[in-house]
Amino acid sequence: MLSNISRQIARNLNVQQKKLASKPFFQLERSFVPSKLGQGRFYAAPAFNAAHFEAKYAQKIKEIAKSEGLTVEELKQKIKDEAAKKLKAAQPKKVQPKVVAETTKKASAATIAAKSQLPYDSSAPTLDKLVKLELLEKETPENIAKIWNAGHANKDCITAAIPSDVYNKLYKRSQQYPMFVVPMPREEGVEFFFLQFSFHQVNFTSLLEYKTKGTEARPFLTLTHFTELEKSKGIVLMKGDINDDPRMLDTANAQFLAFALQQFYVTGNEDKLKLVEKFHKSPAEFDFQKLIKAVETLV
Where is it localised (predicted)? Predict the structure, then answer.
């Protein structure tokens, strides 16, 4: 099946290359911000709700500030500044049409290879290896989300707390549609990323990487979903790890990919989900111009 998808999408991209060259690519104009738990959306949260967190964990915050030689207010400002830098990085430079044509040409040459699947097993650690699960289970879902995001606020990763109904929909659709491609703007043009689900993980690699290395392609980003609290608390915790060997993405890039995933598979409009369906069911009719236009509406 993937072989057919590969060949047909390759032909489709070649046909559309000249059309894409005549149109300027879009520019991301807004940064991503964390959503509130229960709103049916989930994505990276580089900062946290400081007021609520401080009220319950004031002593812990003071200890962290003291260990860094800061006052509590200085620590809060430091976190805000770091978050602002990450979000600012999510605004790529505008790309010229000529550059887009060249990059799209590379994407065309780097379309999905005729391989069965990427060799990513669900080998992620369980949640109790990362946190004291028995302590989290005593908290409310809202507090768990704050603790989870705050605990990773200064780490080089992305996190989220996903409502169970949203994750269940994502997981169900991942079994129907385990692969997809997402275009992401770069300074040099646009780069297509290939994503693949593996149980409760999602791996992202560049389409070029997958074409050139096949089953040896590296995951640039791995999103791991921890379902231990799904039934008792109604949430699934997510952690996105960026590969450092070598590092090809920053946290803003990871945010973009995670946000695109949620939009195409769960929280976006019906047209976005139809693109995912068509990618699998009618690859010969898959329109990359519509895909790029759909990504433009994300922001």
Answer: Mitochondrion
Name the least confident of 3-17, 139-153, 185-199, 273-287.
3-17
**What is the DSSP secondary-structure string of 219-250?**
PSEEEEEE-TTHHHHSEEEEEEEEPBTTB---
Mean pLDDT of 129-152: 92
The predicted model gives 100-121 an average pLDDT of 40
- Tell me the C-alpha distance between 177 and 277, whole Å: 7
**Amino acid type, 109:** A
**pLDDT at res. 91:** 43
Q: Mean of the pLDDT values across residues 89-108?
A: 42
Count the alpha carbons within 13 Å of 157 in the hemisphere toward its beta carbon: 16
Query: Global pTM?
Result: 0.63
* Amino acid (one-letter) located at 157: C
Residue ranges of domains in the chain: 2-296
Give the sign of the dihedral formed by CA 104, CA 108, CA 113, CA 114. positive
| Structure token pair of residue 135 | 């302590």
**CA torsion, ordered 72, 77, 79, 85, to nearest 10 deg:** -170
Distance CA 149, CA 232 (A): 19
- Rounded to the nearest 10 degrees, the angle between the axes of helix 72-88 and helix 58-67 is 80
